[in-house]
Design goal:
The chain is mainly α. 71% of the residues lie in helices and 0% in strands.
Length: 1072
């Protein structure tokens, strides 16, 4: 053991001095702590060593082992040994003494419950002398903590029995703590803390826990200790006196004040009643908080007008009072609603104090005031949170009270309480308005923290919004209107007051009926006239407030032409242009946010009020507005995201023009304007595209912003309302007309920049949107085929999945029309994209396996290509044309059947999307060969499709042989190679089951029934020999035939075969 102790000492010292091997020393010591021999070694260290680091490690090891249930060989001897060690460290070190008293409690938790009472009495007796006073106080604090500590791995019943045994002696413990607190301030602090812990232990009382659970339906609870005279307890009285004495010359130390606040906080948590002893306790605490706060405020009034230092004597003192204040909101609301006419004066003082705290220029302190009011509103709303029950093994924290309350009773209760709370909540709203004001010169405030204040304002907004339940949104809006009138009379107008008004209004506007007040219209009228600062952060903040107001009132503007015109001109000609020359704030995100908010406001107005804008001034307003916004889009000082927002807004206005000729001219003009900035880029292009040799030349590797905005302008018009049926029918769609007119430029942009993936993805999305909303006209458009061929050329240069997604969308848009010319185009496009993918996959997997295939063609591309293929053959007309008339269809089917097992064997995780799409493609072909798919429709085309589908699967000779026998063999191999990848979880095996089922329910059943058993028997070892008993191939086939009418059961049987292979392959590898 001496050697072990020497090793431990070496690693402890190494941990603190040998920094190059800190982790190695830590790992060794951790392993030592978990070893059985650690008990003897650490006891030896505690009796022989004096180095605090060593002593702490030894004592902490004892605690860790006891909590983890790694008990000493003789648990009975553990307590005397701990007491012996504790006697040595009565005077310190404090950290070692603390660990030892925790160990004493944890040790007792592993003893029988019958010994708890005697253990407590014996321990109190042994630690009752003055020299052991600190040990006793720390032990009394540790008992409640460890009783609720779930790190101690005892059962829930033992934890509860220990807590119950301790609760019986609560009065005895409190009496001992009172005596200890009177000895000196040095013992008063730990005595008060221990008393707080003991009050927290009261929540383990079964009767209190039952009351609290019942309180979830709006009931009341009070701990038995409260009725046994807790309000008259000397420690409670002294704690209230200490709090009341804050700010005086005889004030206690800050540490004692904090301990007293903790004690009073725990006392308040023992009840939610405001009558009897509970009222007595709460009024004592309220008196103390009000008195102490009044004294601090009167002494430091001059300091409180400015932003306070985050950590100083004043803020630390106010934090003690603020903690208690934050917890008094619920009791305050209950007192007020209970005492209709005889509200104690101290409650009005408390309300005033909470308002004062909210207005403090220190976010953490002001948040105490917010919490007060939030709690009060929660009581009124019946939404109080249930505090966590540390003795509830199931855990009930996070629930809200009132979930089971009767709604009618709740409505009646609130209607009665509302008048009694109204004046207080009105004062709260007024205080919150003052609290959300920025400092006049934010940069010059030494202790102003931007991020903290922004978060604080959001919390204020929550309270103000909830206050609408008591004082109504209309009152808040009218109150802000009165403030506005007074603010506008001042010279100069304080910008921070206007900002605060906007902030409050935008918070409650959604709660108020639209258009039923005069305040918001008045403020909208004022926006263009406000004296916006020209420099500093305040210039950005007030403009952000104006943008926010416009955002929240876009619906109102859409219904009122006059204000809409004024705001649109204000935004386009004054507001947005004025932001650009402003200097960035110390935090550059402030200006970015200001720009983004302003552009978002413009977009929202142009979107919500687009019909109003187009109709105003006989069509003159929209032209003026669009020209002004185009100028803003062209300004490179705005970020690309902001400019894109404005492009969207322009498109929304143009989209509601009923005259499509006018729409086409306006959109063409917009696209031409956006073409100007890209001319230098186009002029620098080589005569021929560089294709795969092209490299990215921008600093961030992204396409030039001007190109993105140009493409955005082309597709900006969408979401078009239904056209007036009284108008003459159009011969083409205006957006397609614009694309056709500018196609040469679009083509150059695309074909020379295929290496910029995000640009080409934007192009594909743009074409998809355009084809989607113009689907009635696209088949007849001259530009449709060139658009799709352009995308094919781009894909050939730099393949990407979004090209296939575009073709898939086009198939979805137009295949159902069953028009011969369009069908031919779609089939050609499908072959153009899928054939190279199928050939490449097959050749690459044959020569170099899956990794070679992934290098040749990325899995997302093959997945998108086969999803496109599956979509194409889902349509009868495209399937018939592809099978009957194309050369690529047999080749693709042949390659797909060949490559399926290879992809699955080596790269199922990588290629799962591709594999499942391949299987769906094959299944769709099989289904078209089944007469049942036509559902009785005897159309010649469907009969021809059945013949062609059966022919390509059974009769036609593909490059590698007939399809059906090879497909059945591939399906069997898929079950084998997919087996190690948890067959029941992915999509591969269930999709294989779908293909098997298609084989057995149609014209292929006879051939499939002959070949499925044979294919299973021909599988490589050990899988073929594993198919015995219920998994005999012939029995499996019969089972599948019986279940083919139930897809769920059918799939389950196929999965069971794959799972059998998985188990087999775990025992023995596959023999190829």
């Amino acid at each position: 053991m001496a050697d072990a102790a020497t090793q431990v000492l070496g690693h402890i010292h190494g941990l603190h001095h040998d920094f190059s091997k800190t982790q190695a020393h830590s790992d060794w010591l951790l392993r030592f702590q978990q070893s059985p021999e650690a008990w003897v070694v650490v006891y030896g260290l505690l009796t022989s060593q004096s180095d605090e680091v060593v002593l702490y490690f030894a004592s902490h090891t004892i605690v860790s082992k006891l909590q983890a249930g790694q008990l000493p060989p003789d648990l009975t001897a553990c307590r005397p040994q701990l007491l012996s060690c504790l006697a040595r460290f009565r005077s310190g070190p404090a950290a070692v003494r603390r660990q030892l008293v925790i160990a004493m409690v944890d040790c007792q938790l592993w003893r029988p419950a019958a010994e708890d009472t005697q253990w407590l009495k014996d321990t109190l007796s042994q630690l009752s002398d003055n020299e052991a006073m600190m040990c006793l106080l720390e032990l009394l604090a540790a008992i409640p903590e460890e009783a609720a500590n779930r790190k101690v791995m005892v059962g829930a019943e033992r934890r509860a029995s220990f807590a119950a045994s301790m609760l019986i002696h609560s009065n005895l413990v409190l009496e001992a703590l009172c005596k200890a607190a009177q000895a000196s301030e040095a013992t008063a602090i730990p005595a008060v803390r221990a008393c707080a812990r003991w009050l927290h232990l009261q929540h383990a009382d079964p009767s209190l826990r039952a009351q609290k659970k019942a309180a979830a339906s709006g009931g009341r609870f009070t701990a038995p200790l409260m009725r046994q005279g807790l309000p008259e307890n000397p420690l409670i009285l002294r704690a209230a006196q200490v709090i009341a004495g804050i700010g005086t010359s005889q004030a206690a130390s800050l540490e004692l004040c904090r301990s007293c606040a903790e004690l009073l906080s725990e006392a308040m948590a023992l009840t939610n009643e405001v009558t009897g002893p509970s009222a007595q306790l709460l009024l004592q605490i309220i008196e103390g908080v009000v008195t102490g706060s009044r004294q601090v405020f009167s002494l430091r009034e001059a300091q409180l007008s400015a932003w306070l230092e985050s950590d100083c004597e004043l803020t630390n003192t106010l934090a003690v009072l603020g903690r208690l204040l934050s917890e008094l909101g619920g009791p305050f609301a209950r007192f007020v609603v209970l005492q209709e006419n005889n509200v104690p004066a101290v409650l009005n003082d408390l309300s005033t104090l909470a308002q004062h705290f909210v207005r403090l220029r220190h976010t953490d302190l002001a948040r105490c005031g917010l919490d007060f009011w939030y709690q009060g509103l929660a009581v009124h709303l019946g939404a109080e949170a249930i505090e966590e029950d540390p003795f509830d093994e199931e855990g009930s924290s996070g629930q809200a009270w009132g979930g089971n309350r009767d709604l009618d009773q709740e409505t009646n209760r609130r209607s009665v309480e509302r008048p009694r709370l109204e004046s207080h909540i009105q004062a709260m709203v007024q205080a919150h308005w003052q609290a959300v004001r920025y400092p006049p010169e934010p940069e010059q405030e030494a202790h102003f923290e931007w991020d903290d204040f922004v978060r604080f304002r959001e919390l204020c907004n929550i309270n103000i919004t909830e206050a609408c339940v008591v004082v109504t949104p209309r009152w808040i809006i009218e109150h802000i209107g009165q403030l506005l009138e007074e603010i506008c009379k001042q010279n100069p107008i304080p910008w921070q007051d206007i900002d605060a008004c906007v902030f409050v209004l935008t918070g409650v506007a959604s709660r108020a009926p639209a258009g039923q007040d005069t305040v918001i219209p008045r403020l909208i009228e004022l926006l263009p006239q406000l004296p916006y600062p020209s420099d500093g952060v305040k210039a950005l903040l007030l403009r952000s407030a104006a943008s926010r107001l416009v955002l929240f009132t876009s619906g109102y503007l859409a219904l009122n032409e006059g204000p809409c015109k004024a705001i649109l001109k204000f935004l386009a000609l004054q507001h947005l242009p004025s932001i650009l020359p402003l200097k960035p704030a110390p935090d550059p995100d402030v200006k970015k946010y200001c720009e983004s908010l302003a552009c978002d406001a413009m977009k929202m107005v142009m979107t919500a009020a687009r019909k109003t804008i187009v109709a105003a001034d006989n069509g003159g307003l929209w032209k003026e507005a669009v020209n002004a916004v185009i100028a803003l889009v062209s300004d490179g000082r705005f970020s690309v995201d902001c400019r894109a927002q404005l492009v969207f807004g322009i498109g929304q206005v143009l989209s509601v023009l009923q005259d499509w000729n006018e729409l086409e001219q306006a959109l063409s003009m917009f696209v031409s304007r956006m073409e100007v900035p890209i001319q230098p880029i186009l002029s620098a292009l080589p005569p021929e595209p560089l294709g795969s040799r092209a490299v990215k030349t921008t600093r961030d590797g992204k396409a030039p912003v001007e190109l993105k905005l140009y493409i955005a302008s082309v597709s900006s018009v969408y979401n078009m309302p239904a056209r007036d049926p009284t108008l003459l029918p159009a011969d083409h769609h205006p957006v397609l007309g614009v694309v056709e007119k500018h196609f040469a430029t679009i083509e150059r942009v695309c074909i020379h920049h295929t290496h910029y993936e995000e640009l080409m993805e934007q192009v594909c999305l743009a074409f998809s949107y355009i084809l989607g909303f113009s689907r009635e006209y696209a088949p007849m458009s001259k530009v449709f085929v060139p658009m799709m061929k352009l995308m094919a050329r781009c894909c050939e240069q730099h393949p990407q999945p979004y090209y296939m997604s575009l073709v898939r969308s086009a198939i979805g848009f137009f295949a159902s029309n069953a028009e011969n010319q369009m069908d031919a185009v779609l089939v050609d496009l499908t072959g153009l994209f899928i054939a190279p993918v199928a050939r490449t996959l097959t050749a690459a997997t044959a020569s170099g396996g899956v990794h070679a295939a992934a290098s040749a063609i990325a899995p997302p591309i093959s997945g998108a290509a086969y999803e496109m293929m599956a979509e194409a053959v889902r349509h009868w007309n495209l399937s018939l044309l592809a099978i009957k008339s194309t050369q690529w269809m047999p080749e693709v089917l042949d390659c797909t059947i060949e490559v399926l097992p290879r992809l699955t064997e080596e790269g199922q995780a990588m290629y799962e999307r591709t594999i499942t799409a391949m299987l769906r493609f094959i299944r769709n072909v099989l289904l078209w060969g089944d007469p049942e798919t036509a559902k009785g429709d005897m159309a010649p085309e469907l009969l021809e499709l059945q013949k062609q589908a059966q022919g390509i699967m059974v009769e036609r000779q593909l490059p590698r042989g007939t399809a059906l026998p090879r497909l059945i063999h591939s399906l069997s191999m898929l079950l084998v190679v997919s087996a190690p990848n948890n067959p029941s979880r992915g999509e591969v095996v269930p999709t294989v089951a779908e293909v098997y089922r298609s084989l057995l329910i149609g014209p292929f059943e006879y051939l499939a029934s002959q070949q499925i058993p044979a294919s299973l028997k021909s599988l490589p070892q050990p899988c073929s020999t594993a198919l015995v008993g219920e998994h005999d191939p012939q029995k499996v086939l019969q089972q599948l035939k019986m279940e083919k009418g139930d897809s769920r059961r059918f799939t389950k049987t196929i999965i069971s075969v794959a799972e059998l292979f998985a188990v087999t392959l775990k025992r023995s590898p596959l023999v190829v």
